[in-house]
Amino acid sequence: MRNRLAVAILVFGLLMAQPLAGCFGNDEPAPAVPEWTPFDFEHGNTTWYHYPGGINAHNASLGWDNLTGNNTPFPAYATYFGIGDTTFEPTIGVTAGAIHFSSYGGTGSGTMVITSLDQGLTWTNMGPFNPVFQDTGQVPSSNDPYIYADRWTDRLVKFDMHALTAMFVEYSDDDGQTWSIPFTADGYYSPQDHQSIASTLDVEGMSSYETIYVFCINTGSSALGPQCSRSMDGGHTWDLQRPGYPIGTPQCSGLHGHVIGSPDGAFYRGNPSCDGPAIYRSTDGGYTWSEHTVTDNATLMPSSHEVAVATDDAGGVHAFWIASDNNPYYANSQDQGDTWSEPMMVAPPGMQGSGFPTIYAGADGRVAFGYIGTFDAENWSGYLGIITDAWNDRPLITTMQVNAHDDPLDMEPNCGYQRCGGFGDFIDIEIDDEGRPWLALAHNVFGQTGIAATFVTGPALYGDLIQMPEITAGGPGTL
To answer: Looking at the 3D structure of the chain, how many domains does it have?
Structure first.
């Protein structure tokens, strides 16, 4: 009898203990609270730290073991400065100590170069102010203004397209204080449109100048593709235009992104091939070209002609484009474009659309890219993204919105998908000698004013990977 009673008491005790366990404990161990976070710093609601695919990098469950070395997060937030004038298809050039921005002057007045010597705080119109004569002075008008800074010589090049038929190159070796006369760079097709110019070191000793220049244009025909020409004397004279792609290879796009020169002597330009986003490479100063499709994934076809390309100090090649899903994608190559990484979607979580891609690279594996984007399918902002370890299997992406949420750059719902105010067909980006990126944009809400965006602080994209010193923030007050 005592045994039965003891057993009954034991069973009753076990039954009572089960609900009490739910009150005083948990069968599953409580999640461990991280003792350390790589994001132990303040940043505002206009900076995102994320992985490819829009994955929030703050999520501790993903693990932070890879957020070390060159992939370490840095405090970063962006700002912009108004240049005090309008722009159209803004381009930017960075020389030692100066930021140069293109301003569209309109018919009869030519285009102007607006320059800042104090990291965007003040801007000065540097002309050119030569007499308006086609053969001896300032180009009378330009349908497409374009400026470029030779990263090896600091020569500032102004490249104008007049009446869709004639190309003129002017340059300054003293940050716009004085200018050369316009040198003719005419082509043999009409129209001559959508010009781009770049330089690279003359590693083979072919040029009488320190660098070789190449420019490419759109002919208006997808079948003809872009046509390119080179200069071996600093932009004074130019070769006959030749196809900017392998002769005999079918072409499906006549437009192209900005041309870029690599430290190893190669030139690159981007536009869609017939199979997908592609990079075209020249190793003989732009005389002949090879085609390198980044991916033939049909879902990642570019939504427009702009496939942007950049080269870093080690010769790495970086491609950036907006795909047909309206998201920005990035891929890289360490063998001059012969093979490519899997494309990565690089927008922050929640972005609904994007447009106008541009990219520039600094030290080995460090890149900065810009675009406009929207989170509400109505208001468009400018975005500056950086990657400091592009070769990482899971690179950290830091994305900064350059304008405040209540200060949109455009309010047209389809702005990112079409020609849009001062953005025109494209925008531009460069990195200064200190390692700070500069992004050329238009503030359409404020009368298509040109704005130069950068980060107030962030990681240096040249030299040692260190925190950049803070600069004075700009914003709407600079308009």
So the answer is: 1
